[in-house]
Amino acid sequence: MGPRIIDCSSGCLAKSGPREYWCGVGIRLVLAEDNLHMADALEAVLARQPDIQIVGVARGGEEAVRFTDELAPDVVVLDRAMPGIDGITAMQQIKKRHPEIPVLILTASVDAQVAESALAAGAAGFVPKDAAFEELAPAIRTVFEKKVYLSPRMARRLVT
């Protein structure tokens, strides 16, 4: 499936202002992942979380920035390596426009330097893709509460 804004209009309240859709269900999330299979799998995992509502799925950094502008989510999850602008650059643009929105970075790399640079650039958390199915929902909840999330494996790499 391509990039899309999720129409959650059944049971939703119409709002004026920057939120085009408002579902009244917990944490509103924009997910940016260019790998279609991974995006679908992450959506399926997150769909089972009663407190997380995906409001947009982007396939690249530019779309993630645009969806964040249009939908004003509570949390953004960005793949680090995407076509066009990468996840770190997209995060920097999002943080410049919306400093209050926490951004989680998903990556195939578990390199401590990559995590440090992402955190220094403004990421609220860092989740390796191979742990995303177990860790993503708790990570989203953590950064929504304005805390930093590091996967246990990344935390070990950063302190050793």
The CATH topology name reads Rossmann fold
Radius of gyration: 15 Å
Q: What is the domain tally?
A: 1
Q: Percent of residues in helical segments?
A: 40-55%
- Label the CATH architecture: 3-Layer(aba) Sandwich
Structural class: alpha/beta
CATH class assignment: Alpha Beta
Mean of residue pLDDT values: 83
- What is the strand content? 15-25%
Question: What are the low-pLDDT stretches, counting only 5+ consecutive residues below 50?
Answer: 9-22
Name of the CATH homologous superfamily: Response regulator
Helix tally equals: 6
Q: Helix and strand layout, with pairings?
A:
Layout lengths: L3 E2 L21 E6 L3 H12 L4 E7 L2 H11 L3 E5 L7 H11 L5 E5 L4 H9 L4 E4 L3 H13 L4 E2 L1 H8 L1
Parallel strand pairs: 2-3, 2-4, 4-5, 5-6, 6-7
Antiparallel strand pairs: 1-3
Can you characterise this structure?
The structure is a single chain. The chain is α/β, with parallel strands linked by helices and 160 residues long. It has a single domain (4-159), classed as 3-Layer(aba) Sandwich (Rossmann fold), CATH 3.40.50. It contains six helices and seven strands; from the N terminus they run E-E-H-E-H-E-H-E-H-E-H-E-H. It has helices at 36-47, 61-71, 87-97, 112-120, 132-144, 152-159, and strands at 4-5, 27-32, 52-58, 75-79, 103-107, 125-128, 149-150. Strands 1-3-2-4-5-6-7 form a seven-stranded mixed beta sheet, sandwiched between helices. Helix 1 packs across helix 5 and helix 2 runs parallel beside helix 3 (87-97). The longest helix has 13 residues, at 132-144. The radius of gyration is 15 Å and the shape is globular. The protein starts with a strand and ends with a helix.
